[in-house]
Sequence to fold (483 residues):
Amino acid sequence: MKDAPPPHLFVVFGATGDLARRKLLPAVYRLTREGFLDGAQRVLGVARSTDTDDASFRALAREALLDAGVPADELARWCDECLYYQPLPGAPEDHAALARRIEALEREHGLPGNRVFYLAVPPKAFPATIDGLGEAGLNASPGWTRIVVEKPFGEDLATARELNDRMHRWFDEEQIYRIDHYLGKETVQNLLVFRFANMIFESLWNRDRIDNVQITFAEQLGVEGRAGYYDGVGALRDMIQNHLTQVLTLVAMEVPVAYEASAVRHEKIKVLRAIRPIRRSDVVFGQYTRGRVQDQEVVGYLEEPGVPAGSRTETSVALRLEIDSWRWKGIPFYLRSGKRLPRPVTEIAVTFRSPPVSLFQSMDFADLGHDVLTIRLQPDEGFSLAFDVKRPGSPLVLEKAPLEFRYGQAFGRLPDAYVTLLLDVVQGDQTLFVHADEVEDAWRLYDPLLDGQTRVRPYPAGSWGPREAEELLARDGRVWRTA
Ligand code: BG6
Fold:
């Protein structure tokens, strides 16, 4: 059990925006209500609007929290006692005014100068915000100062490096928390427990026992009015470079020397560095066209509002990679993510090797001997191990039977990733945050594929992606496990 975080000021840039309203304010409120913050936190919302003040920000927050489904009792009191607002319209003296406001609030509430700066702003606003904080001397304080940045962290290797350099000009790496919200999901954290607390799996987790690993992040939704952000970004930058690659490192890493930030991140970085350059022929980009999802006719990507005519942005990616390490040499990892796929499912399928000689070979059963462990990250979180059993009676027929665990049945509702991650920030635990080197190593892998030369293949909405994504596995004599 970690210590309760000390009193602090939580400063949210982009406080009137979508992320703050949907995720951050509800997460902070839940942490307060559940007693994690000891009531010793004040929140200062910062945004461009000069029409907003403390009172109207509190009203906006109250509404957002109710929309997010938090219980109404105590809400008004919390908003009045804890929330404040400071405009940052973009004038040169803004950050100096912000510094004065922060000090005034700290004096008023007896806070010791511990500060979190959360950048819930569009990436183009990162540089000015970071420099503004640094130039106003807000990178240091009488207590601790931490800065939290959302993805996307850069749009390729060069811009990620530039952003890292800019941050390091003002902040030490120990002060920087790069969020990948997937790392805050219970089931993703459970990957390490699953692997390293259970000898039964760890001893099988290698090239001698495993045939291949597949990671599928399928979304049923399309771009949902986010074309302004998504177009030109695409699935490789939006999902694969960060969320899928982070999960891949947790699946493939060696056991860290301790469950703490530097040891865990060190092992993740080793995985990234051992991945062979990905061949273009091992990558399939797709873009959804008109189709049917859950019995509803939906438009194609090019018809979505805000998508420019002829856009070549990929809405799905399937790829194959190999990790040149003692544990994994020669074992293919298949990664796949896409929008407008038949159903929302995020899962890892680990297929074990079949026995070298099978007693039951003559029975022409395609899956014979391949036990499959499926780790379901969402929805319906849990895992399932499918293995062969004999169907009772004669003749001898083998059948796959599952051994299952469901989080929901065992523990009920799981906490939101942001609740977990915000608590870690104020407790100073960087284990679930991405190190500068990890970001750059992940970009280094995908950078060569971002040159606009990868063909984008159409797939009808409601299908599992382009035909070529199936062929990628068929070439190796395999099929996608999630269908
Ligand atoms: C975000 C992407 O990071 O993750 C979105 O920008 C995507 O495009 C989302 O829809 C998926 O997250 P989750 O938690 O809903 O699986």
